[in-house]
Structures are given as structure tokens and as C-alpha cells.
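Before relying on records like the one below, remember that each one covers exactly one chain. Contacts with other chains, cofactors or solvent are not represented anywhere in the record.
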Amino acid sequence: MDVSLIPLPTTVAVVAILAAVAVILFAVADYHGGLGSWVGMVWRIMRASDPAHRRNEVLAARVLCGWPRTARTLRLRVLHRRGRVQIPRIRRVRADATGVTITVRTAPGIGLKKFRLRCRDLADYWGVQRVVCEQLGGGVLQLRLQTADLSADPAVRARKGLPLLCGTDTFGAEVTVDLGITSGIAVHGRIGTSAFVVSLLRQLVPDPTVRCVVLDGRNPDPFAGDYGVLAGGARVAMTGDDLEGVNRVLTELVALRRWRAERMSDQRSGLGVSDFWCAGPTIDWPLLVVVVDSYTSLLARTPGRSAATRHRNMVAEANTAAVRDLLAHGAQYGIVVLLTTAESLPQQLRELLSATFAFGCLGDKAAVAALGPRIRNFPEANPSGYTQPDMATTITPNGDYTAFRVSTLPAPLR
């Protein structure tokens, strides 16, 4: 076809139409994350050799295409006069084999706080396991969409676990706690805490690769208290409310933790690994479960200026330091701490506990101290209203609250 035969006005019109289409496409691409994001994403989809990586690149494209609608649906938008709508703008999208990372520029009134409130909704909307939001700088947020189960990684899958049955929730599903991924467990409440700990220990006592150490600060004779049902077990050691005796036991446990830290990675005298749960527990290297019942009687300071009170507080501080050492470093070497309390724990201990259970709490303040201020948004799971000792609330891995009833376990003791 001879181009010279096309009339000049027609040529100008065609060029103008093509230029207009290019401008519109550029504007649309910029609205949905920028032209660079689209070009880079198409290039990475073509180059991706990992199927999981390719699926996440396609997810990133779907997020870019549907972001305006997603923001409006989840109310991550600002309404101006005359009906104009402003939403946070996506500036960059990157995908890898485990998820998608999105950089977002905030809009007036739509910042970190509102995005974090919508993380669970965003995860459900995009069909991913979880969404995490962090602040990168002024007016810039980063969203991380986790699509892959981290436990599916061979390095993580090599770790063993020791799940214990806690009870059943409202829907009849089992509520469990895995000691293999737990540095420490806090059990809050004024009723039912010791019975709950006993129900966990009854599942552990028959296992020859587990040793239990019970520090019962509620009774001078631990065999006559709530833990008396465990008396006589060959793999259970118990002591009463003698603060000096508790201090000696904790000091020995800290020394054992340090001994394990020096020898565990040795191929001959240890397990040959740096993480206890990659090879243990074994009969020679058992799991140690340390029960501290309770914080008030064994770790907390008491008011007073007498010599006896000062000495007691000095021992209590030493006990607190030992428990903090076991919480901070014990999980890697096969030592797990269960700490019961009827009052708020100090920050130095609370930040090291990875699992929390709350039974009947005395008022809303105690429930918030145990489970955080977000528990006020879950009235059906607020433990301040529990009057039965077998009702409790725990925090799920995704940050929600689950109420459950403790199961009665007639496990044999040997």
C-alpha cells in the first residue's frame, strides 16, 4: 500500500488517535501503579522460572488492576467536595516466591493506622495468608502479602513440634499450642490456671523425652496442691513456695541452659545442630518444661523496708532474672517456661512470651493487661466475663481472639 496516497488530514487524524490512545494508556498505567511497575512486572513474569514466583507476579498484576476498586470497597479512600474520590497510590510492586511487596503513598487521613485495621480484610480480598503493613517514611507505607506457608520451607519443615491439646472452641475445632514454636506461655486469670497447666502436663508426663519442673508457689508442700496428681512421676520434679529453694532450681536451670548452648552443636556429645527442635527431644536431650506458678508469689516484689522484706525482694529479683534468661534463650536449647499470674506481668517478661491464655479476669483492666487493648473489640471472647474455670481465651497466629473450653484429659501418668 502506498502511504503517499493517504490524504494528509486522514494521516493527521490517525496519528492524533494513536497519540490519544497512548496518553490514555499511560494515564491508566500511572493510575494503577505507574508504567515502570507494569513494564517491570511483565518482564519478570516472562523471566520467572519458579511457578510460585510466576503466580505471585500474576497476583501483583491483579492487585494493580483492581487497586482502585479494592480501596473504595474497603473504604481506604477520601471523599472530597463535588464527589471527587482520592485513594492511596501504589508506587511500586515487587513479587517473589513467597509473596508480594507493595509500596503505597498515603492519602490525607489514610495512613498506617487505617491500613493496619484493614490488613485482615485485604488478606481475605486478595486470597493470601496474611498482609503486614509497615511505615517506610513520611507518607510512604509498605504492604507485604504473604502467599506461601513458611512452614512449607524445607528448613522450617525439618523442625519437629510438640502440639498440646488445650480445648475446643465455639465451632468444635481443637485449640492447640505447639511447644516447638513457643518460647514461653503465659496463663493469666484468677481461676482455672493451675488446672489448665496440669492438663497440659498430663499430656507430657508419659513421654520419655520430656522432663517437667514444677515450681508451686501457692503451697509449701507441692504434693498437696493442684500438682499433687503428678506426684510420683519419674520425670517430674516439684518444689513448693520456698523462695530460696526456687532460686536454687532456677539457677541450676540457667546453668543447664548455658551447658546446652556450649555442647548442643557438637556432633559427639550433643545433637549436632544449633536448633534443639531440628533433632530433639531425645532421651539423652529431653525437653524441659518449667512451670512457674505463680508470678506473684515467686517473682514479684513486696512492699516493705524490713530486712526480711529486702532479702525476699532480692531473691525475687534473682528469680525474675533467671526466668527472663530462660524465656529469652531457652527455647533454642529445649527449655520452655509456663508462667501463671493473676496480675499484670512486667514488660521485660511479657515481651518474651509467645503464647497467652487468659481465664476469668477480675475486670476489663485485667483482661487488657493479659491480652492487650484490642480485646475490647471482641466482647464475645473477653475473659472478664468468665465465671467458669474451664473457659479461656487465647490469641491466634493471625492476631484474632478465640474463646475455648478446656478439655478434660484422662491421660495416664507413669
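The chain has twelve helices and 16 strands.
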